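Hi everyone, sorry if this is the wrong subforum. Our group has a chain we'd like a structural model of before ordering constructs, and none of us has done structure prediction before. Sequence below.
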Amino acid sequence: SLNPIDFGGFMAKYLDREGKWVSEEEHQQLVRDKHYPLVRKSVENGHIISTVWLSWTEDPEELFETMIFKEGRFIDVYSMNYKTEKEAIEGHNDARKWLKHHLEEQNGRN
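Answer:
Right subforum, don't worry. Here is the predicted structure as tokens:
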């Protein structure tokens, strides 16, 4: 069924990476594939840039997310959401450029 799921006050529906609504059963199959959610992953200077398909959303405009981690922790200065996989891939590349610039600025201050 395509019934929304109640997550403590907001309603989410399942979408695949193409942004098509899928049933809970189809969603579970996609999530079981450990490679399906990962769009891109880069390791740069001890940081991990990860872009993933979120698998469920209240807002179809935010189906993908890019975050930067260091030593397993999220760097709270960078988190971006995207509607399409194409935008997410472009955003991942932008995050790589952002991190390079951010690290150069930090190194310039040291």
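For your construct planning: Residues 13 and 75 are 28 Å apart (CA to CA). The chain has a mean pLDDT of 83.
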